[in-house]
Amino acid sequence: MKKVLSAIQPTGDLHLGNYFGAVQNWVKLQDNYDCKYGVVDYHCMTMPYKASALRENTWKMVFQLLACGVKVENVFVQSFVPEHVELSWVLSCVCSYGELSRMTQFKDKTDQLKDKDKDALVSSGLFLYPVLQAADILIYHADYVPVGKDQEQHLELSRNIAQRFNTQFEKEYFVHPEPLFTEIPKLLSLADPNKKMSKSLGEKHYVNLFAEEDRIRKQVKSAVTDTGEGQIGMSPGVKNLFELLVACNEKTIHDQLMQDFHNGALKYSALKEAVGEALVQLISPFRDNLKALEENKKQIKEQVKDSSSNIRKVAQQTMKEVREITGLLSLK
Asked: What is the pLDDT of residue 198?
C-alpha cells in the first residue's frame, strides 16, 4: 500500500474547518493507504506557549482525532518519536538559508508576534520549522501528503530537500512526496464571513467540533448573513451557510433552499435552522465517541503510546540508514 503522512498541531479543540479540511479525509484514506497521522507537539514550541497547556492540548487532540474515526494504530505523538528532531538537523544541513527565508509562514507568524508585543522573541525554531516538517514526512518515506490545491507549495521544500540529500550522498534514498489533493470547502467565520474560520480570531469565529447542541444552534442562529451594504447577489454570509450544508452532505435541503434563494423566497431563519440541524447531526456522534473514550482514558493513552512506539520503529530504521549514508558513527 502507498504511504500517507499528515499531521496536526495540538493548539486546542478541533473545529469545523479542521474537520472538513483534513480530519474527515484522514478517516477515509485509512481504507486504501498505509496512513500515519501525527500530533506534532514539537511544532507548537515555535510560538510562545505554556508547558501545562501543551501537555493537555496534545492529549486532547489525540482523543478528538480518535472520536472522529481515526484509528488508534495510525496515530502517533511527535515527541514520542525523537528521531524526527534528529533527522531535522541532518536535513537542515542540505537546506539553504535562502529557501527558508522565502517561506511565507515565518513572516506571517513574525508579524503576528510583533503585533502583540513589539519586543517578542522570534525564535530560530520558527525559522527552521519547515525542515522539521520535511523530516516528519521523509522519515516515513511517505508517498503522499493530503493537502488542498492551494497548499501544494508547502510540499515543495520537502521534495527539494529529498532531492538534494539524494544528490549529495549519491543515493536515491528519500521518496519525493507528492500531494494527494482533496476538495476542501472554504469555510468562513460565522461572525465575520469575510474571514476564514479560525481559532486565532476568537471563539465566536469558529464552531467547536465537540460543542453542545445548544451552543451550535445559537452560533448558527447569530451568524451574519447580509451586511446591509447594498450587496448584489448572494452575500458571503449566506454563501457560507450554503457551503456548510454541502459539507454536511445535506444535498436535498441545500437544493430546496437554493431554489428559494433564486426565487427570492429564501428565509434566513429557515436556512440557519437547516444548517444548525445539519451540524448537530454531524457532531453528536463525535461527542458521544469522545465521552466513551474519556471513560477509558488510561487505557487509550497506553494504546497511543504503543502505536507511537510501533510507528517509531520505522523512524528508527530510517535514522539507522541515514547515519550510514551520511557517515555518522553508530553505537552498534
From this structure: 84
DSSP letters of 245-260?
HHHTT-HHHHHHHHHH
Verify whether residue 2 is a known catalytic residue: no
Report the C-alpha gap between 190 and 82 in whole angstroms: 39
Question: 194 and 235 in contact (C-beta within 8 Å)?
Answer: no
The single residue of 71, 186, 196, 221 carrying the catalytic annotation is 196
Cell numbers 531535522 correspond to 88
Distances (CA, A) of 70 to 24, 39, 48, 325: 9, 12, 29, 35
Query: Which residues face 36 on adjacent strands?
Result: 5
**pLDDT tens for each residue of 266-318:** 999 999 999 999 999 999 999 999 999 999 999 999 999 999 999 999 999 99
Spans of the chain, pLDDT less than 70 = 150, 227-232
Query: Is 118 known to be catalytic?
Result: no
**196 catalytic residue (yes or no):** yes
The answer to whether the Cα torsion of 142, 148, 149, 151 is positive or negative is: negative
Could you give the dihedral angle defined by the CA atoms of residues 156, 161, 167 and 170, in that order, rounded to the nearest 10 degrees? -130
Instruction: Please give the grid coordinates belonging to residue 312.
Output: 517509531
Q: Do 130 and 100 form a contact (C-beta atoms < 8 A)?
A: yes
